[in-house]
Every structure is written in C-alpha cells, then in structure tokens.
Amino acid sequence: MHVPDGFLDLPTSLATAAVAASAVALSLRGARRELDDRAAPLAGLVATFVFAAQMINFPVAAGTSGHLIGGALAAVLVGPWTATLCLTVVLLVQGLLFADGGLSALGTNITLMGVVGVWTGYAVFRLALAVLPRRIGSVPLAAGIGGFASVPMAALTFAGLFMVGGTAPLDAGSLVAAMASVHTLIGVGEGVLTALVVGSVVAVRPDLVHGARRIRAASIQAAAPAPSSGHRA
C-alpha cells in the first residue's frame, strides 16, 4: 500500500499533501477530546504496534504480499482523530528511516492510510455496531468488519488518484480490477487481525477501548439499581 516517489505526478502529490496536512491539523484538535490520562499511553502502544505490524508482510497470491494498515484498529482502540495522528507518525518514521514510501509521496500515503483507511474503517465499524447486538462482545466483530472494508477502499482511492495523476501508462480498468481483487484478499487478513487484537484488549481492559465506551456506559447504566420511589410513613 505504500506509494513510492514518482508514482504520481507533482500536482496530484501536492493535492494529497494538502489533504494530509489539513487532516493532521484537524486531528490535533480532535485528539484532545479523545485522549485522557489512561488513553494517552495506549495511543503510543498502538502506534508502536502498527509500526511493527506494517513491517511484517504476508503472502496473498501470485507473489503478492500485504501488510496490516492498522487504521481501523487504531481508530477503534484510541479514536479516529488520534488514529490519524498515530498513522501519520508511523508513516513519517517509515519514510525517513526505512525508505518505505517516498517522502514526496508522504502526503499520498497519509491520505490513503491515515485518512481513508482510518475514517472508512471507523465509519463501517460504527455502522456494524449499530446493526449487531448491543453488547461488548460485538465490538471485536464490528472492528474486524471495519478493518476489512478499510483496505479495498484505500486501494480504490489510490486507483482513482493514479487515473488522475499516474505517471505510468496503465489501463484504468485493469488497474481498478487488480487493486480491488488483491486488496480484498488483504482486507480479509486485516479484518481478522483487527478483530483478534481488539478482542484481546476488550477482554482485559474494555474501559480503554474507545469504540466500546458507549456500549460499556449503557451496560453500566442498565445494571445500576433503579432509585427507590417508596415514601416513608
């Protein structure tokens, strides 16, 4: 999913850089509402986990490999605004120290993974959670569905960008078909890993999971004893 230097022309790269910069600026403000004394350390752990997970590739088909994007995972654990910041830090370090994605394509990679991946995954997670039973056990499944959806959406967004400003003579239909098919398979792995990790955290500390807060609060409220309405004689 990492886009290298020179894959998109200068105007397209500048446009995605502007989108990425705007998203980061908004996220810096939005993250203030998501982070507290308990969530801040988790955000650092999430960024570290996503960084490590993106360095591990798994085979898909015909010699193609994929890796965890981590957008939906981060969004469910620490919130979408904070997740965008986590992915931005990860992609910046990868570009500067490991040449994983070019510096001129940094804005494109942040847009694809830190914006599209994060927000698509979180939106699908919220929709799935609204349909599934309202219990804490639904959170990992909804997170997995969000993780699955985030990968092909990011891939199709890249295909759209390439059709606008790609530097290689590729057929648009073939590009879309190839990106959709391969990244749907990668999305399956993303969904499974996302569900497993979120499920592990929910099982131990559900109070730390951003995406579980509403359900947990509703469960606590439902379990609370009703106030007595009796009158003293």
Automatic annotation (TrEMBL):
Localization annotation: Cell membrane
Q: For this chain's UniProt record, which GO biological process terms are given?
A: transition metal ion transport
List, alphabetically, the Gene3D superfamilies matched: 1.10.1760.20
Entry GO CC: plasma membrane
Q: Any transmembrane segments, and where?
A: 40-60, 72-98, 110-129, 141-164, 184-204
Superkingdom of origin organism: Bacteria
Q: How does it sit in the membrane?
A: Multi-pass membrane protein
Which Pfam families does the entry mention? CbiM (PF01891)
Which PANTHER family does the record associate with it? Answer: METAL TRANSPORT PROTEIN HI_1621-RELATED (PTHR34229:SF1)
Name under which the protein is recorded:
Energy-coupling factor ABC transporter permease
Task: Look up and give the organism this protein is from.
Answer: Candidatus Phosphoribacter hodrii
